[in-house]
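Wed. Picked up where I left off yesterday with DUF2513 domain-containing protein. The coffee machine is broken again, so keeping this brief.
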Amino acid sequence: MKRDMALIRRLLLSIEKHPDRISGFNFENYKPEDINYHVALLIDAGLLEGDYVRSHSSSSMAPARFVITSMTWAGHEFLDNLRQEDVWNVIKTKFKDDSVATVIAVAKDLAANFAKKKLKGLMDENEP
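Structure written out below (tokens, as returned):
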């Protein structure tokens, strides 16, 4: 199964918006097993606190069930970075096939670099 950064972003946004309803996601154009697989990726990456159970009778890589208790600090930080359109556009086009760890690091670096450019622009505006 291939990782889908758009689904990862959508899951994190949904969990942040509805922390009391963090199970049974139903997104148009996504199969339940795709969603469950991506939830497992987010738990394994440390972006969500929770657990999942794989079915012994299925050949699917997706877990049969999952429980999410919360989004971690790292999950919130990652989502804050993905929320920035400049960062999101680079991630979804240039890093869509990279590992979650790589995407997390790149998103953090991109956000910091965009912030530095913005700060430099503000400082240049205020110079006499």
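Quick read: The first helix runs from residue 5 to 17.
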